[in-house]
Design brief:
The complex is a heterodimer of chains A (214) and B (300).
Chain A: H1 2-11, H2 14-34, H3 41-64, H4 75-78, H5 83-112, H6 114-120, H7 124-148, H8 154-175, H9 179-207
Helix pairs in contact in A: 1-5, 2-3, 2-5, 3-5, 3-7, 3-8, 5-7, 5-9, 7-8, 7-9
Chain B: E1 5-16, E2 19-29, E3 33-38, H1 44-52, E4 59-64, H2 72-75, E5 79-82, H3 94-104, H4 110-120, H5 136-148, E6 154-158, H6 166-183, E7 188-192, H7 196-199, E8 205-210, E9 213-219, H8 220-226, E10 227-232, H9 237-241, E11 248-250, E12 253-259, E13 271-274, H10 278-289
Parallel strand pairs in B: 3-7, 3-8, 5-6, 6-7
Antiparallel strand pairs in B: 1-2, 1-4, 8-9, 10-12, 10-13, 11-12
Classes of the chains: A mainly alpha (214), B alpha/beta (300).
Chain lengths: 214, 300
């Protein structure tokens, strides 16, 4: 775990980490203070996962953008026998961090507003719905960041980010009436997408050691 | 001169989109600086990438450090590779390059890295400066700083002088000389270059490549004995053209490189001979093997 987080820290810059670990989660948590309607836990979860998707997909280009392009930009890393291991560990570290950040945002907000939540007497379906929102958001963040890693350029990252936000919203609204089914589908999909993303990126990095076949 | 080999290549073949790298045998001598010279597209970068273990799709055998090892993954710690273009991730800062170097290589020395960055004026002391904001020259200096901050036995450098200004090229030559001297015969440098004139004073051994093959190689002093620069009168130009390895003529006379063993064929002509520079030898050999056409001279 320590090696993984060290590799993650090395690949990402301090400003990127400050944004994704502190500033943006804090902005998301403080937003309901300015917009009272967002204080409803479910609505807050919808808002939080949408904003989280937007900034996470866009900002991934700051750390890992273009890493899966055949033209690589990883010659220095590849010149080391440990290069592939460092890349893989940094991707896994980022995956772990991406899973943890929105979970902490939602749990922290739940803790801060626990009295309100108790008073609202939400049904179990609402809590499952919030979990679904977390999984849907995480799935599209994984898909979006994977796509960004094949691209080079701010405009493409913004486009991917915007598309992912709309996909999260449409999927979340569509899944609202089937929280338990969504949970059963989204949970394994999310896990598969996460590890599948790392596998795909690593495959591309390994392929960059070979010339493209016609 | 019998020398041990930093790297030995046997039966190296690599084909890619109509290009074929074909080197039956090649030895990079240990303890010396070897220049790899060739036209654009000759295969220099491909060869360096294969030797550095960045390209793995090839046939043949490569032996490192007097044949001790054939698996490049086992020797990457002892090799220092520098390349042009996409070497670092563009959003990395100078400080991040230091951090990742510590992760990638056991012998990376952060203090030496700081000293080299200061010595080479990289980023004007601003360690938060990103690679993408550095000029090509500063990016190459950063590449040199990372590789020289490690304990290595062989540097593989792909056109290290190209983006550098003349003063920095001189500094690069000084750094290569210091690297070899400190190695006491155990370190080697293998670099490709188009800046033959600038790099000649640090070059001990030379390989000239054309179309994926090594067409000439040898110690520079031996090549300067093998080839000779001949200058003569216009009247003898036509006859000299058939003998010279490379040939150029104007209204005042002709000039060309000749194999020393063929100098006798020029007997009777009013000529002067000079020791050619490595640049002149390289151009002559490349002209003899190129597919480019020239308006005058060249070997028929």
């Amino acid at each position: 775990m320590r090696g993984m987080m060290r590799c993650y820290r090395v690949f990402t810059g301090p400003f990127y980490r400050l944004c994704v670990l502190v500033l943006l989660p804090l902005a998301v948590l403080l937003f309901p203070a300015a917009v009272p309607i967002m204080r409803d836990y479910f609505l807050f979860a919808m808002f939080a996962m949408t904003i989280y998707t937007a900034y996470e997909v866009f900002m991934d280009s700051w750390a890992f953008g273009g890493i899966a392009r055949r033209e690589g930009q990883l010659e220095y890393v590849k010149s080391s026998a440990r290069g592939l291991m460092v890349v893989k560990k940094s991707l896994l570290g980022n995956l772990f961090r991406q899973a943890l950040t929105p979970a902490l945002i939602l749990l922290l907000y739940g803790f801060i507003c626990r009295s309100q939540i108790e008073a609202a007497e939400y049904s179990i379906d609402i809590y499952i719905g919030i979990l679904d929102l977390y999984l849907i958001g995480s799935f599209f963040v994984t898909a979006g960041t994977t796509a960004v890693r094949f691209m080079d350029g701010v405009a493409l990252s913004m486009g991917a980010s915007t598309l992912c936000v709309w996909l999260v919203l449409f999927t979340a609204v569509g899944a609202m009436n089937l929280p338990w089914l969504t949970l059963c589908v989204a949970a394994p999909l999310c896990v598969a997408a996460g590890f599948g993303s790392v596998w795909l990126i690593m495959r591309r990095v390994k392929e960059s050691y070979y010339d493209k076949k016609d | 001169m019998e020398t041990s080999a930093a790297i030995e290549v046997s039966g190296l073949r690599k084909t890619y989109k109509g290009f074929a790298l074909d080197i039956p045998e090649c030895r990079i001598p240990k303890g010396f600086a070897t220049a790899l010279i060739g036209e654009n597209g000759a295969g220099k970068t491909t060869l360096l990438n294969v030797l550095a273990g960045i390209r793995l799709d090839y046939k043949g055998t490569i032996r490192y450090f007097d044949g001790q090892e054939t698996n490049v993954e086992q020797v990457k710690e002892r090799l220092g590779y520098t390349g042009p273009g996409s070497y670092f991730l563009p959003n990395w800062s100078i400080a991040q390059v230091e951090e990742i170097s510590g992760l990638l290589f056991d012998t990376f020395d952060a203090e030496r890295y700081h000293r080299l960055c200061a010595e080479l004026g990289i980023g004007d002391g601003d360690r938060k400066k990103k690679v993408q904001s550095l000029s090509d020259g500063n990016r190459m200096k950063l590449t040199l700083a990372t590789v020289l901050a490690r304990e290595t036995e062989c540097l593989l450098m792909d056109e290290p002088a190209s983006p550098l200004d003349p003063l920095m090229r001189d500094k690069l030559c000084e750094m290569i000389r210091t690297y070899l001297e400190e190695g006491d015969g155990e370190r080697s440098v293998f670099f490709s270059t188009h800046n033959i004139s600038d790099m000649e004073n640090v070059t001990d051994y030379c390989m000239i490549m054309e179309h994926g093959n090594i067409v000439e190689e040898g110690f520079v002093e031996d090549l300067k004995e093998k080839y000779i620069l001949v200058k003569g009168e216009t009247a003898d130009a036509a006859k000299a053209k058939e003998i010279l390895y490379s040939f150029a003529a104007n209204q005042y006379g002709f000039e060309g490189i000749c194999l020393t063993e063929r100098l006798d064929a020029l007997a009777g002509m009013d000529i002067v001979t000079e020791v050619p520079s490595l640049f002149q030898i390289s151009v002559a050999v490349m002209r003899a093997n190129t597919k480019l056409t020239f308006s005058q001279g060249g070997v028929e």
